[in-house]
């Protein structure tokens, strides 16, 4: 606007000098620029443009490596001007610059793609009113930001391992206890308390033709599995080891270990809950009230929301004892196992009699571009971690690597666990 004002003044001076000097050619030179400057002054922004984000949603993307998706929001512009320049950024990176026509009000869709989960910034927008022909611009508005919480997506899984002991009086699995609803347990002589409809007349006629003794069919009782998902939120590392110190943030297109842990836990929760089992959630990094084991669709929503809000919170205090678990529960630990804390807790749960599955969520590391000393440190860390995982396997903790084929690995554990009829899992 200051440039248009100065140009108008200069053209007016040229016009007056041409008139006073009797030089019409010089006066004509100042007329056209003066008219354009007056037009620009007349079409300048009459006031600031107001910008705000309206609520959007998140589309789950099953192809996202960390279980993210597409983030949607709507930027609403209001102002008296005709044009507005919009500049968007996301996580410190420049996004889109557009010039839009503004007729008192305008709504612009904003879409961002992410492979990350948890609290996410959709976009930050700065808006400026623009006059006719771009000759003048208004002061930029204060930045407006839209954030949302991206819930972890789920991966279809096949067969799943079960705990060594099943609980409850009903459920989708056969237990070791005699009852009703399951497969044939045995055929036994009739005893007080057996129901008459359980009498097997064919076996009775074969074993006792004179009907002095009756035989009944006994079945296995149906029961449910209790699964506790334990996420280690102390580490949130990406595939680039140079970002592990925290001075450089991981790239937005890289899924971190915590993103993988959220996706893995949500996938297992959905599969177990769909089978009719009860699932709970706990966190090794933060001491807060866990999500107690439960079933149903609402339990899956609670677990996914709790997983999305799971994040490192400073230096956690050392645990004197592992978190308490329901008796006979299957424990699934999601961790990078970069230190001894999570491995020690998993080993103690196994010693207490629980079946423990350790899920390795460390991303596939990129060693390109590292200095020699960084390569050496990475090699030492890898060897120490491999020794730690081997010790877990020696203590009968079953291992699954999420970055390979987790559905196949879990199916192998489930089939390895199949025993005779009436047992929850194989050992």
Structural commentary:
This protein is an alpha/beta fold. It has helices spanning 2-20, 24-42, 201-207, 257-274, 297-308, 340-351, 372-394, 406-416, and strands spanning 50-54, 58-60, 69-78, 83-90, 93-101, 105-114, 118-130, 144-150, 173-189, 215-223, 226-231, 278-283, 291-294, 330-335, 355-360, 398-401. β11 (226-231), α4 and β12 form a beta-alpha-beta unit. α1 runs antiparallel to α2. The longest helix is centred in the C-terminal third of the chain and has 23 residues, at 372-394. It is elongated and about 140 Å long.
Keywords:
6-stranded mixed beta sheet; 29% strand; alpha/beta; 4-stranded antiparallel beta sheet; elongated; disordered C terminus; 427 residues
Topology:
Elements: H1 2-20, H2 24-42, E1 50-54, E2 58-60, E3 69-78, E4 83-90, E5 93-101, E6 105-114, E7 118-130, E8 144-150, E9 173-189, H3 201-207, E10 215-223, E11 226-231, H4 257-274, E12 278-283, E13 291-294, H5 297-308, E14 330-335, H6 340-351, E15 355-360, H7 372-394, E16 398-401, H8 406-416
Parallel strand pairs: 11-12, 11-14, 14-15, 15-16
Antiparallel strand pairs: 1-3, 2-3, 3-6, 4-5, 4-7, 7-8, 9-10, 12-13
Helix pairs in contact: 1-2, 4-5
């Amino acid at each position: 606007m200051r440039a248009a004002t100065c140009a108008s003044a200069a053209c007016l001076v040229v016009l007056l000098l041409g008139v006073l000097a009797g030089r019409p050619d010089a006066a004509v030179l100042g007329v056209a620029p003066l008219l354009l400057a007056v037009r620009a002054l007349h079409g300048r922004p009459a006031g600031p443009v107001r910008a705000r984000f309206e609520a959007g949603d998140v589309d789950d993307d099953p192809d996202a490596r960390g279980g993210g998706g597409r983030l949607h929001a709507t930027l609403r512009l209001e102002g008296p001007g005709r044009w507005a320049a919009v500049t968007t950024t996301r996580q410190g990176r420049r996004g889109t610059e557009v010039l839009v026509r503004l007729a008192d009000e305008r709504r612009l869709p904003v879409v961002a793609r992410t492979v990350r989960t948890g609290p996410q910034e959709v976009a930050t927008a700065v808006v400026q009113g623009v006059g006719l022909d771009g000759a003048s611009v208004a002061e930029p508005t204060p930045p407006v930001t839209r954030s949302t919480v991206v819930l972890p997506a789920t991966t279809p899984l096949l067969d799943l391992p079960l705990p060594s002991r099943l609980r409850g009086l009903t459920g989708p699995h056969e237990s070791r206890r005699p009852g009703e609803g399951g497969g044939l347990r045995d055929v036994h002589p009739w005893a007080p308390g057996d129901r008459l409809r359980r009498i097997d007349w064919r076996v009775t006629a074969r074993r006792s033709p004179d009907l002095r003794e009756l035989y009944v069919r006994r079945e296995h009782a149906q029961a449910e599995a209790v699964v506790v998902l334990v996420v280690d939120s102390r580490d949130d590392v990406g595939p680039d080891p140079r970002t592990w110190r925290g001075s450089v943030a991981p790239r937005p297109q890289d899924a971190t270990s915590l993103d993988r842990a959220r996706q893995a836990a949500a996938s297992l929760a959905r599969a177990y809950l769909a089978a009719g089992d009860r699932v709970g959630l706990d966190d090794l990094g933060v001491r807060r009230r866990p999500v107690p084991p439960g079933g149903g669709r609402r339990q899956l929503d609670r677990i996914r929301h709790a997983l999305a809000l799971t994040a490192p919170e400073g230096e956690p205090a050392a645990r004197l004892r592992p978190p308490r678990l329901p008796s006979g529960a299957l424990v699934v630990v999601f961790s990078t196992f970069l230190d001894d804390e999570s491995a020690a807790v998993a080993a103690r749960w196994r010693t207490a009699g629980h079946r423990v599955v350790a899920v390795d969520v460390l991303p596939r590391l990129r060693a390109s571009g590292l200095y020699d000393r960084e390569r050496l440190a990475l090699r030492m860390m890898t060897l120490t971690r491999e020794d730690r995982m081997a010790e877990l396997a020696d203590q009968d903790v079953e291992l699954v690597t999420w970055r390979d084929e987790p559905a196949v690995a879990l199916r192998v554990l489930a089939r390895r666990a199949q025993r005779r009829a009436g047992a929850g899992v194989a050992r």
